[in-house]
Amino acid sequence: MAAGRTGSGPPAGVLVVDKPAGRTSHQVVGWARRVLGTRKIGHAGTLDPMATGVLVLGVGRATRLLGQLALTDKTYEATIRLGQATVTDDAEGELTSAPGAREVADGAIETALVDLRGTIEQVPSSVSAIKVGGVRSYARVRSGEDVALAARTVTVTRFEVLTRRDRTADDGTPVVDLTVVVDCSSGTYVRALARDLGSALGTDGHLTALRRTRVGPFVLAEAQDLETDDVVVTPIAEVARRCFTSLDLTDEQAADVRFGRRLPGTSLPGERTAVFAPEGEFLALYRPDGDDAVAEAVFVG
């Protein structure tokens, strides 16, 4: 469904954008607000300015779905440089050390990757957006503080090298550039994977390129660029059926759901289930509670 500046406003739903390099996620939200003529737009998980790729925006009442969508898994394609470290663990930060990596063998890289797959404890980059005492970690670092963040549990289901290139960096350091693909849970920092891979190989590592190709069921092939004249908003009902298990209700059940009431004796097909009125209107997300179903979030009045 195409939507622009119309008197009735854009439909509630999801807009999938291919974020360009050099733009913040907030700037992309600002673009969408201008194009669609509404301020009620948010995003399901940020991308760093250096990164490109899939950014999922919620429009209208679909912004309330974003917290649920942000919890899904993601896929990235990235370039990791072994042999150099930066203060930010990516190419935007100042170079801090450069021991080089020309002698790193393919077998050693594969062995190191094994320990970075599965459920792992990962220490985020100190310049992440995680809050420490109510202040973003990156803000503390920029003000001169030394910040040590606590490890967090993440899951990396795929971490695979696609190509290797041995080269000499601009400062004369012999480095290895690896093109990799990563499937991971929400909250995983790919630049931390680059840093930790370098450390496991007895050298340094940082990220030089990052492109997100998937967020849950939303893929790069459907993402729209910022030059698009008429953006396409996927309606909220279609998004709900695509992202969650679904259940079609009776008229009586639908009336109860509109008030957020418990549905006694209702068996749900999933932990978070999108429930619909008989005519197809998306009403709410419900979850199991014993033999009943209870509201997690209601999207209609």
TrEMBL record:
Coiled coil ranges: none
UniProt keywords (A-Z) are: Isomerase, tRNA processing
The main enzyme category here is: isomerase
Indicate the segments forming the Pseudouridine synthase II N-terminal domain, all copies. 33-190
User: Pfam family of this protein, just one?
Assistant: TruB_C_2
**tRNA pseudouridylate synthase B C-terminal domain location:** 191-227
Active site as annotated = 48
Which EC numbers does the record give? 5.4.99.25
Which reaction is this enzyme known to catalyze?
Answer: uridine(55) in tRNA = pseudouridine(55) in tRNA
Residue span(s) of domain tRNA pseudouridine synthase II TruB subfamily 2 C-terminal = 244-299
Q: What does this protein do?
A: Responsible for synthesis of pseudouridine from uracil-55 in the psi GC loop of transfer RNAs.
The Swiss-Prot or TrEMBL record describes its family as follows: Belongs to the pseudouridine synthase TruB family. Type 1 subfamily.
**Would you tell me the protein name for this molecule?**
tRNA pseudouridine synthase B
What lineage, starting at the top, does this entry show?
Bacteria, Bacillati, Actinomycetota, Actinomycetes, Propionibacteriales
Gene (name only): truB
